Amino acid sequence: MAGNAxxxxxxAPWHAAYPSPINTAxxxxxxxxxxxxxxxxxxxxxxxxxxxxLRRADHEGGTIRGSVNLPxxxxxxxxxxxxxxxxxxxxxxxIWYCSSSRGRxxxxxxxxxxxxxxxxxxxxxxxxxxxxxKGWATAGGEFADxxxxxxxxxxxxxxxx
Length: 161
Fold this sequence. Notes:
The protein is an alpha/beta fold. The protein has helices at residues 31-40, 79-89, 104-118, 132-138, 141-145, 152-156, and strands spanning 28-29, 49-53, 63-64, 68-69, 93-97, 125-129, 147-148.
C-alpha cells in the first residue's frame, strides 16, 4: 500500500543525535572508593567531587546522598556550561552514574573527559561509578545508609502490589 510508513522502523537511540565520545573508556571509581571519599567529607557534598545521577525515567529506588540529577538525554549540549560551573566551584572529580554505568554513565564521562582534554585541564577528572547505582544499592548495608530516598523493595524486586 502506497503511503503507509513501515511499522517496523525503530527510532534512533537518544545519543545518536550527538557525536560518539573520543574517550570510550573513562576512568572509574569503585563504590568503596566513593564511599570512603564521602566519609572524609563528613557526608556533605564537597568541592573536591560531584556525583551526577544520569537517570531520567528510571530515577527510582533512591539516589546516592548529595548527587545531582542531570538526565543523560539532555546532557551533551550543557557540557561547556557544566564544565565552567564545576571549574568555578573547584570540583576536581565529576563522577557519573546511571543504572549500571555501562551506557549513559560511560558515555557522559567520555563526553566530559573529551571536553576537559579540549580545555587542556589537567586537574579535573571525569569518572564513572563502577557498577552504577544498581551496584551501590544492592550492596546494601552501609551503601544503602548513604542513599537519599532509599527503597529496599525496589532493589530487591519485592515491591508490594
